[in-house]
Write the structure tokens for this entry.
Amino acid sequence: MIIFVCTGNTCRSPLAESYAKTVTDREVESRGLFVTSNQVSPYSEEIIQRENYSPSTLPEQLTHEDTLDNTLLVMTKIHYIQVKMLNEDADVHLLSEYVGESGDVLDPFGGNMDDYTRVFHQMKHYIDKINW
């Protein structure tokens, strides 16, 4: 299974999960490293609904068990380090590096719809390059 990971599992990873479910039959989920909310960002939800993607799951905390036998695709280098602190043997990759590119996926939290749309298109670009 592939698990997309971001900070709170409210903005980036739910968008990535929803979009990925439209392009692969593989099991895809999302998690957060510091989940404090029980709902996905309204902007992320709006993009998911507008594009008619599969609904994302509710925000869920990444656990040690999640780091076993799953491929974790994180948004930033800091997320990578945090996952490795949870399990140094985790199969974790920066989303951009997983497809041969580089760079963090910026956090749109606190931004407007344009910020969320820009981040969504950045993640979509990477997800479209995954060899499912």
Remarks:
- DSSP finds five helices and four strands in the chain.
- The radius of gyration is 13 Å.
- The mean pLDDT is 96.
- The beta strands are 2-6, 28-32, 71-74, 91-94.
